[in-house]
Amino acid sequence: MxxxxxMEHAFNEQINKEYFSEYLYLDMKTRxxxxxxxxxxxxxxIQVQEERAHAEGMYNYVLERGGNVxxxxxxxxxxxxxxxxxxxxxxxxxEQYVTSRINAVYDVAEELKDRAAxxxxxxxxxxxxxxxxxxxxxxxxxxxxxxxxxxLLALDKELxxxxxxxxxxx
Length: 170
Ligand code: OFO
Prior knowledge:
Elements: H1 5-34, H2 38-64, H3 84-111, H4 115-145, H5 149-159
The chain binds hydroxy diiron-OXO moiety (OFO).
């Protein structure tokens, strides 16, 4: 069954938000590169790749359903704060926002009784739980570290070990 226009539009808006997330995290990656914290840079590099994969997953899905992908302009990212703690507070806030937008796309699928879209979106709903948890974990550590430079370097080392596992979205 071809995708309805309202559903297609909701996906297109979300594709834009996922690309915006990629852009935002790329900007944050730059901030950490300038702070000489390579582990944080690695963490954000993986976020960037994940967000692109999230966008591409929806892109492929809309085409698979016979719909049209319309690419909207990507906003300029504005990072709130400049310290690692402030930036991670922004990351969590952003992921919570993304969760609310994914839920809104899900609501459209529910309203249209588009069961295929609901099943597809389940992956994103679950992914957001993981995203918020992993960001919350780094944020909690940064709160604990406070002004302790040694603690920050230890966390940087820990984040350097993160690896990108390309998500299988279907
Ligand atoms: Fe960071 O999450 Fe996409 O969806």
